[in-house]
Write the structure tokens for this entry.
Amino acid sequence: MGRLHKILGYSGLVPFFGFALLYYVFNEPWNFALVVYSALIFSFLSGLLWASTLNHEPPKHTLYVSVGAMLWSFLWIFWMPGKQNYFLIIIPFSFIALHCYERIYLSKIYPTSFLKLRMHLSLFVAAIIFLVCFI
């Protein structure tokens, strides 16, 4: 994993910070943007799971988890209108659960540096969204 991966990974946190700040300042319209961006990133992460099955032999359920994670993030948007605050509580747990799955089942496939980056990014995302929920 190169330096560019880290730069792009941490740069992906900027919209989380931005939407959280806008939500804090202007309230309602920005929680929608925060949930949608979260869904996009979570769907991207599910694509990484899918890609991990191309050159390696992870557990068979990795493909199902990949597709399930993408559909789960789609539901955040589909069911969300009027319920953004509920989803702002569900989303952080989803990011943490996906990271735990990767750490348990894909630690032999993913480089240690990548798992460390994923842990940092997942914890930052969870913390940002929890702050939006409870402050």
About this structure: The CA atoms of residues 110 and 131 lie 30 Å apart. The chain has six helices and no strands. The radius of gyration is 15 Å.
